[in-house]
Structures are given as structure tokens and as C-alpha cells.
Specification:
Elements lengths: L1 H23 L1 E2 L5 E8 L9 E3 L3 E11 L7 E8 L2 E4 L7 H4 L12 E9 L7 E9 L5 E11 L1
């Protein structure tokens, strides 16, 4: 019996850690796909929110799987500040040209999107939910993820 307790405890711990990791990043309406992994520079998923240091760049990676074939993917980024949606500009919103996604994407295949967001010195020090969307040519969300963050 003792021999079974350690593997059971270890499996429970792994599930708990992965569950916490998955829950920090929330789906906000992915319709034409889903995400399986999100990584943000200097973000510890066990200690939310993600800290975005002003006057630096934050890199985000999203592993996603589309449900449909898409020839164009556009990234749209907003910050939700006390209920107000504020656009965050990114240098190249075309995910097919500079974000590591080889378009057209095929349904059922996993892709890795990587982009950098400047965190400007002029941004106020506030908590913000960053809404990162990857949209198809019909403006449907392939992926929509909420990243709890704090500009510091």
C-alpha cells in the first residue's frame, strides 16, 4: 500500500500544478480553435498576475490548434482597464509574416505564435487584463486569451 501512495501523491501534485498553470490564462471566446499553452516573459503562472515591466518588451508565445484552415491570421491586443478596452499596438499584427506561424494553417495542427509587445514607460502602473486575439480573415477568433497582468 505504501508503494502506491508516492506515485498517487506525485500524480496528484502534477495535475494540481498543471491545473493552476492552465487557469491563470483564461479563454475569452476562441471559436475557430483553441490554445494549449501560453507563455509570457517573466511570468510565473504560479504567482499571478504577470508582471510587465515598463520601458521593456514582453514576449508572448501561444500554442494553438485551429479548427479550420486559415490563410490569414491577425493579432489584436487590448487591455481591460476598469472595464475600458484600450488597444495595445503591436509592431506587426500579421501572424503569418513575423510570428512564426506558417500560413495557411490547417485544422488539427498545432502552431506556435510568438510576438513582442512594448511596455511603454508612459503606461500607468496598474493591474490590467490583457486580451490577446488571433483572428481569421472573417474576424472570427481562432484564439482569444485573457492574461492577468500588472504594469510595474
Amino acid at each position: 500500500m505504501k508503494n502506491l501512495l508516492l506515485p498517487l501523491f506525485t500524480a496528484t501534485l502534477i495535475v494540481a500544478v498543471r491545473s493552476d498553470y492552465a487557469n491563470i490564462f483564461r479563454d475569452c471566446g476562441s471559436k475557430a480553435g483553441s490554445f494549449s499553452k501560453v507563455e509570457v516573459t517573466n511570468c510565473d503562472p504560479n504567482h499571478p498576475p504577470c508582471i510587465l515591466k515598463r520601458n521593456t518588451n514582453a514576449t508572448i508565445c501561444i500554442e494553438f490548434t485551429p479548427n479550420v484552415e486559415c490563410g490569414e491570421i491577425t493579432a489584436v491586443v487590448h487591455g481591460d482597464l476598469m472595464g475600458v478596452s484600450v488597444p495595445f499596438p503591436i509592431s506587426n499584427p500579421n501572424a503569418c509574416t513575423s510570428a512564426g506561424v506558417d500560413c495557411p494553417v490547417k485544422p488539427g495542427t498545432t502552431y506556435r505564435y510568438t510576438a513582442t509587445l512594448p511596455v511603454l514607460k508612459s503606461y500607468p502602473k496598474v493591474k490590467v487584463d490583457v486580451k490577446w486575439e488571433l483572428k481569421d480573415s472573417h474576424n472570427n477568433d481562432i484564439v482569444c486569451v485573457i492574461i492577468p497582468a500588472k504594469v510595474d
